[in-house]
Design goal:
Largest sheet: 7 strands, mixed
CATH topology: STM4215-like
Distance between the termini: 15 Å
Order of helices and strands: HHEEEHEEEE
Number of domains: 1
Number of helices: 3
Strand content: 35-45%
CATH architecture: 2-Layer Sandwich
Structural class: alpha+beta
Helix content: 10-25%
Length: 143
């Protein structure tokens, strides 16, 4: 579940670019996996959503498996938050683009990103998004 590793990484307060992102969003509680919870006083735009969209798993040795997963990373913002929303998605892309190394349970991870795209939503809201292609290895275990 690469989205769990990405969530933990993006909520980090010790990595400068991640700290800048959470500050711009309004705290670490503004990053969600799959969907935002019911809207209330604590879930105000802008927020960042991580959505795994599919991938593959291939055995590459007796004890190793390589996984590739695409994760759509998006920022939803309100009608008056166009500039902050765009800044947040650019910070998120800067944080994950060309990442190499380990992320919690995923070892030897490599992340590449698509271009940022945006489209309008209801009542003047806007969504900025990009796709992060995450490729990593892990120890093979029989299902």
């Amino acid at each position: 579940m690469i989205e769990k590793e990405l969530l933990t990484y993006l909520q980090s307060t010790t990595i400068t670019v991640c700290k800048n992102l959470t500050t711009k969003l309004g705290g670490i509680g503004k990053i969600f996996v799959v969907q935002v919870p019911t809207y209330d006083s604590t879930t105000k735009m802008p927020w960042l959503v991580l959505e795994p969209t599919g991938g593959t798993r291939e055995r590459i040795g007796a004890s190793k498996v390589e996984e590739v997963n695409n994760v759509r990373i998006s920022v939803d913002n309100g009608a008056t938050q166009m500039a902050p929303g765009r800044e947040c998605i650019e910070l998120a892309k800067k944080a994950v683009e060309n990442y190499r190394g380990n992320l919690n349970g995923a070892s030897d991870i490599s992340i590449t990103c698509s271009a940022i795209t945006g489209f309008p939503g209801l009542n003047g809201c806007y969504r900025w998004q990009f796709t992060a292609r995450c490729q990593w290895t892990e120890t093979y275990s029989r299902p």
